Known about the structure:
Blueprint: H1 3-19, H2 26-33, H3 47-72, H4 77-90, H5 92-99, H6 112-123, H7 128-146, H8 156-167
Helix pairs in contact: 1-2, 1-3, 3-4, 3-5, 3-6, 4-5, 4-7, 7-8
Amino acid sequence: MSPRAREIAAAARTLLEESGPAALTLRAIADRLGIKAPSLYKHFPDKEAVETELVVQSLTEAAEAMEAAETREPGSLAALAEAYRAYALAHPHLYCLMTERPLPRASLPAGLEDRAAAPLMRVCGGDLDLARSFWAFAHGMVVLEIHGRFPAGADLAGAWKRGVGALRP
């Protein structure tokens, strides 16, 4: 990406992180940069391309978080769960952008989706069904937490521990 495209993506990410996906418009991005919206089209063909760049950033960062957890505690599903939850809660709007829509696979860098899944696949011994079950559990828990769906005082740490324990390979 050109320096200007990186600047646009950074402004889009800041806007998304601060105000959520509804605030992420090309006009708002341009306003944040002090330029006119048509100038963005020199670097991104449309809003979807900007969002795809943010998904790429998020998948890359999530992969890095999972890889770091795997390095710290090899073979630990609990460590991966903790890293996954921490990343999602630190970047809730970015996480939701990445996970609550169809993944733009055709526009992702080659191998990125596999890289993001690799630590979990290794911990699960290559068992795709187990990895998918864990991801569904972790994603569901995180989304419910992000959207404030658990009652006040709910023991989320206990729920995570129980769920991870039930899925441990």
